[in-house]
Amino acid sequence: MPGEYCLKCGKRLPEGSLKYVVDIRVYADFDGVLDFPRGDIEEEVHRLMGEIERMDPHELEKDVYQEMAFLLCKGCRDRFMEDPLSRGEGPYPAGEGSSQFIH
User: Fold this and answer.
1) Which value, to the nearest 10 degrees, does the dihedral of the CA atoms of residues 45, 63, 26, 77 take?
2) Which residue among 56, 86, 87, 91 has the highest number of C-beta atoms inside a 10 angstrom radius?
3) Which residue positions in the chain have pLDDT lower than 50?
4) What are the boundaries of each domain within the chain?
C-alpha cells in the first residue's frame, strides 16, 4: 500500500489525499553588533580560527543555517498553524536522524 504518513500523528496519507508540507528555515541572526576583543585583535582572530577548525563542520553549519520540511495531515497542519511554537502542547516529537524530514 503506497502512501506517506503524517510526521506529527502518524496518520496514513494515501496517494491523492490532502496533505501539507511545512518548510522551516532556521538561520543565525546578526544584529550588526560585534564585540571587539580588548587585547590584540590579530591574536584573537587566530584563536577563533583555530577553534573553528577544531569544530565539526556539520555542527558548525547547523549553528548557522538549517532547513526542514515536514509532511502533515490537515488536522495536524491546522493545529500547527494555530500554535506553530507548540506553546500549548509542548514540543513536537522528533525521531532520531533525518527520517523525520521529507528532504
Assistant:
1) -170
2) 86
3) 1, 97-98, 101-103
4) 3-29+36-82
